[in-house]
Design brief:
It contains 4 helices and 7 strands. The protein is α/β, with parallel strands linked by helices. It has a 7-stranded mixed β-sheet with strand order 1-7-6-2-5-4-3, covered by helices on one side. The protein starts with a strand and ends with a strand.
């Protein structure tokens, strides 16, 4: 599925389309350059799923937890990891295999630890306000 978002005001409808497309998949891997809008899109996805908590980047904490009706969301930012062992040490598999939603920024930092099935989200900057979002079930 390919979406083009022309402004931040279009993110809620894009988030709804992504959640609908993903069906029962709950692990989402977000790829894109620094500043592409990964965290901003994740914020819209979390709101779409029903969290009322503030959604922020877990750059320093590595993982943030948000409560939604009947489930949780784990939001990861692996940018600061030096190697995959750091993800192993934090017990990433307990999160990935918990049946909660997992939104993962910078998954390229843990290539050998990625699950077999996930939603691949590629964000490409078109200009200051526009993004192309390619979503694929893997």
């Amino acid at each position: 599925m390919l979406l083009t978002v022309q402004s931040i005001s279009e993110l809620p409808s894009a988030a709804s389309a992504i959640i609908e497309y993903s069906a029962n998949h709950k692990i989402f891997l977000f790829y894109g350059d620094m500043g592409a809008g990964k965290t901003t899109l994740i914020k819209s996805l979390c709101e779409c799923l029903g969290t009322s908590e503030p959604v922020t980047s877990p750059t320093f904490s590595i993982v943030n937890e948000y409560i939604i009706p009947n489930n949780k969301i784990y939001h990861f930012d692996f940018y600061r990891l030096k190697n995959q062992d750091e993800a192993l040490d934090m017990g990433y598999e307990e999160y990935f295999y918990s049946d909660a939603y997992c939104f993962v920024e910078w998954p390229e930092k843990i290539p050998g630890l990625l699950p077999q099935h996930y939603i691949n989200v590629q964000i490409k900057v078109l200009d200051d306000n526009s993004r192309q979002i390619n979503i694929e079930k893997i």
